[in-house]
Write a structure and sequence with these properties.
This protein is of the alpha+beta class and about 300 residues long. It has helices at about 55-65, 100-105, 110-120, 125-130, 185-190, 285-290, and strands spanning about 5, 20-35, 40-50, 80-85, 95, 135-140, 160-165, 205-210, 225, 235, 245, 250-255, 265-275. Strands 1, 2, 3, 4, 5, 6, 7, 8, 11 and 13 form a ten-stranded antiparallel β-sheet that branches. Strands 10-9-12 form a three-stranded antiparallel β-sheet, with no helix packed on it. A hairpin with a 2-residue loop joins strand 2 (about 20-35) and strand 3. The protein binds 2-oxoglutaric acid and fe (ii) ion (FE2). The site of fe (ii) ion (FE2) has 4 residues, from loops. Keywords: Iron, Metal-binding, Oxidoreductase.
Length: about 300
């Protein structure tokens, strides 16, 4: 089966990266990995950008994934959501968008999604310079791992994932994908076995956006990121406008909302991306550029 990449669909935007604030820029999971016959120091990058998703886009996406005027106190609408997502075999299923809802989103991205894509592309100026050889691309390769593991179904891949975490749910640490752990697949045949971030290979990155209009601190439901070797980590609170960009090989999980959230779901949308290296150029991505300047917690800056 051919390995196909779909270029992110965008629209013209007046937004510029300077409108966002980088509130976290972390490197975790430091280790030595083999690379092109040598070795290099590997990090998994975690960047949190505030003021990335406009409130209009956030509201439109939430309405689209639920229904305009939907009473969120009743949980997610069963017409678009099902309890069929699990971080691992044996865990009780949590709410995820149905395949139909995901397929509709992928086939015909609404203007709000195009705007999010456009803002993402604006973080990657190289992609605009050369239409023919985009640096940013959406991947849906066969053989990539994914956290939506149904009871007995084989591991599958979705370019989008929707989550609606509710109090009482159980989540487990997982990686969205690790090219060093892919099975034999067209992906592996083309790109080989490599540690994510290797120069000249696709960098697998997830974009996570939070969709609730408000999520008070005592409702919990942070996304937790863990350094797998030291067992210390970082908690990121769901906030409107906030986007998380993480290397897909970084361990993370949702934490369940606290009982104070009642039955209100904590909605998130995850976009799985492959940042393709361009021929004869160093593997330069916005994520790597951003990560040139690690910032202490408590500071923020605009790219
Ligand atoms: O919603 C979140 O905080 C993270 C979701 C996640 O890890 C995933 O969908 O793979
Ligand atoms: Fe994940």
């Amino acid at each position: 089966m051919a390995l196909e990449f779909e270029l992110l669909r965008t629209r013209p935007t007046g937004w510029s990266p300077a409108d966002a604030r980088v509130v976290l820029n972390a490197r975790m999971d430091a280790r030595i990995v083999p690379d092109s016959g040598c070795a290099r120091l590997h990090y998994a990058h975690l960047v949190v950008l505030d003021d990335f998703v406009g409130d209009i886009e956030r509201g439109a996406l939430l309405d689209l994934l639920t229904a305009p005027g939907w009473d969120h106190g009743q949980g997610p609408p069963p017409s678009k959501w099902e309890r069929a997502t699990a971080d691992g075999a044996g865990l009780p299923a949590t709410w995820g968008l149905t395949d139909e809802a995901l397929a509709a989103l992928a086939a015909d991205p609404p203007p709000a999604m195009l705007e999010v894509h456009a803002r993402l592309a604006a973080l990657f100026p190289d992609a605009e310079e050369r239409e023919a050889a985009p640096a940013v691309s959406l991947s849906d390769p066969e053989g990539m791992t994914d956290r939506k593991v149904m009871a007995d179904a084989p591991v599958r891949c979705a370019a989008f994932v929707g989550n609606a975490a509710v109090a009482g749910d159980a989540f487990a640490y997982h990686v969205d994908a690790d090219p060093a752990a892919f099975p034999d697949s067209p992906w592996r045949a083309r790109f080989g076995d490599y540690a994510n971030g290797a120069r000249g290979r696709p960098l697998l990155v997830s974009l996570l956006v939070y969709l609730d209009a408000a999520w008070p601190r005592d409702w919990g439901a942070e996304t937790l990121f863990l350094d797998g070797r030291t067992d210390v980590g970082i908690a990121v609170r769901p906030k409107p406008g906030r986007a998380v960009l993480m290397d897909q090989d970084l361990l993370h999980r949702v934490s369940a909302p606290s009982p104070a959230a009642g039955s209100r779901p904590r909605y998130s949308l995850v976009r799985k991306l492959a940042l393709l290296p361009r021929a004869n150029l160093l593997h330069q991505t916005a994520l790597l550029r951003l990560s040139e300047l690690p910032i202490p917690l408590g500071y923020s800056w605009s790219p």
